């Protein structure tokens, strides 16, 4: 009897190991690895008929502890439940982090599509099979990010039988290609078939949002909610649109509404943190990014924005630690290198800052802001000739919107040229005539 229980426990922990890898929860992974090994040890003791009380008690304690941790974690995070019981036929698309891709809806579930095809009783089984096959081939092409081929297959499916699901998937393809007017048209076709199809309202909102027609986008989101879209998802999307339009307080209200439904929504905590940073509330932003890191401990974006929040609160040394954590997971994260350089400059560690800015320019050689930052760090470190070259490069690359910065760079060049003329050395190290630039002149990303 006990042998059977132990075998079941080993199977359970093996399954949890798989789920932990899927969820990228390495803390829980280690707990279940211990539980798995403890189960194996218990079986070995039973097979060998060894009656050793102390090791048995220790192993039993490990097994029970692992089970309790799994139980408590499952109560606190419903992602495990969703892996077994998805309960939602819609798939979310996330191709570009930091964009609205995660709100795009598409349907891959054959059961759902076949149900809609069966509503067309006048369609022969041969035609139905062709419709399903074209839809399936479109899905395969979509997942390979071959959106042109996906559109072609979806269109062949529609030529035989018009369905709201294929129109929805077509709209998703056009959204990924940034052809927003065509995406709106396909959503309209889906809504002509079924006006209560909330996924089409949501894709329509994405298109209007990308076209910066924010009132239209919000109106479509209201329709999506009316026809049954998940409140927490729509609140997140609505919040991001309000945030984009500068209505930050209203955006925060939407994020709070989403968190009332589900406090474990990582994307909501992330966007809420960004919103607090824009409102110059870094301490509140820090709390949000702590939540994000708790759920996704390998998210380099979370570490980066956590670092930005610490920087804004004046904790420069701590911000560097979090920029380093972001770079541990994404070594070519140019924004993290740039902002780390600025934090180092704030601490007077200019030579280290110079290395950071030079790293960024290897990744983005045409970044005007970084040329400006490198020039400032070089000037602070008394490398005046090199600073002049960087300022000139900044002026060459900067847009007209940066005119005040351009004028400031020109003045820096003039001041440094005067210093160099007064110096007997080609590099005026430690000149007393040097007037260092303000540390606030650095351009944070």
Give the helices and strands as they follow along the chain. Answer: HHHHEEHHHHHHHHHHHHHHHHHH
DSSP helical segment count: 22
The major pleated sheet works out as: 2 strands, antiparallel
Mean pLDDT metric: 85
How does the overall form come out from the CA principal axes? globular
* N- and C-termini, Cα separation: 62 Å
How many strands?
A: 2
Reconstruct the topology from this structure:
Elements: H1 2-23, H2 26-47, H3 53-76, H4 79-84, E1 90-92, E2 105-107, H5 110-118, H6 125-143, H7 147-160, H8 164-176, H9 180-193, H10 198-210, H11 214-226, H12 231-244, H13 248-261, H14 266-278, H15 282-295, H16 300-312, H17 316-329, H18 334-346, H19 350-363, H20 368-380, H21 384-397, H22 403-422
Antiparallel strand pairs: 1-2
Helix pairs in contact: 1-2, 2-3, 5-6, 6-7, 7-8, 8-9, 8-10, 9-10, 10-11, 11-12, 12-13, 12-14, 13-14, 14-15, 14-16, 15-16, 16-17, 17-18, 18-19, 19-20, 20-21, 21-22
């Amino acid at each position: 009897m006990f042998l059977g229980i132990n075998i079941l426990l080993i199977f359970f922990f093996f399954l949890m190991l798989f789920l932990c890898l899927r969820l990228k929860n390495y803390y829980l992974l280690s707990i279940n690895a211990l539980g798995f090994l403890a189960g194996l040890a218990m079986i070995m003791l039973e097979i060998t008929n060894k009656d050793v009380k102390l090791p048995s008690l220790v192993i039993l304690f490990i097994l029970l502890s692992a089970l309790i941790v799994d139980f408590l974690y499952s109560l606190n995070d419903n992602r495990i439940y969703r892996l077994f019981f998805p309960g939602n036929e819609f798939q979310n698309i996330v191709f570009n982090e930091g964009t609205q891709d995660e709100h795009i809806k598409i349907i891959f579930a054959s059961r759902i599509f076949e149900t809609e095809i069966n509503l067309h009783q006048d369609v022969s089984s041969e035609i139905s099979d062709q419709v399903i096959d074209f839809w399936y081939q479109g899905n395969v092409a979509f997942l390979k990010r071959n959106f042109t081929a996906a559109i072609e297959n979806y269109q062949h499916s529609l030529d035989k039988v018009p369905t709201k699901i294929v129109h929805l998937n077509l709209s998703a393809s056009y959204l990924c290609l940034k052809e927003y007017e065509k995406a709106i048209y396909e959503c309209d076709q889906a809504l002509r078939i079924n006006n209560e199809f909330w996924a089409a309202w949501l894709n329509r909102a994405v298109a209007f949002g990308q076209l910066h027609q924010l009132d239209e986008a919000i109106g479509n989101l209201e329709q999506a909610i009316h026809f049954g879209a998940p409140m927490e998802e729509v609140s997140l999307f609505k919040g991001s649109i309000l945030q984009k339009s500068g209505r930050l307080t209203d955006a925060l209200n939407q994020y709070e509404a989403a968190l009332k439904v589900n406090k474990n929504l990582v994307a909501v905590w992330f966007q809420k943190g960004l919103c607090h940073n824009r409102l110059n509330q870094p301490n509140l932003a820090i709390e949000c990014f702590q939540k994000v890191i708790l759920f996704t401990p390998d998210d380099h974006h979370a570490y980066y924005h956590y670092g930005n929040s610490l920087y804004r609160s004046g904790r420069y040394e701590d911000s560097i630690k979090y920029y380093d954590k972001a770079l541990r997971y994404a070594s070519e994260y140019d924004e993290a290198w740039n902002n780390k350089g600025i934090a180092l400059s704030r601490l007077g560690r200019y030579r280290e800052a110079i290395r950071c800015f030079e790293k960024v320019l290897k990744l983005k050689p045409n970044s005007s802001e970084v040329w400006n930052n490198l020039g400032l760090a070089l000037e602070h470190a008394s490398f005046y000739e090199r600073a002049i070259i960087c300022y000139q490069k900044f002026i060459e690359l900067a847009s007209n919107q940066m005119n005040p910065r351009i004028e400031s760079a020109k003045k820096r060049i003039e001041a440094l040229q005067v210093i160099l003329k007064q110096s007997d050395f080609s590099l005026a190290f430690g000149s007393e005539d040097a007037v260092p630039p303000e540390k606030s002149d650095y351009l944070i990303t």
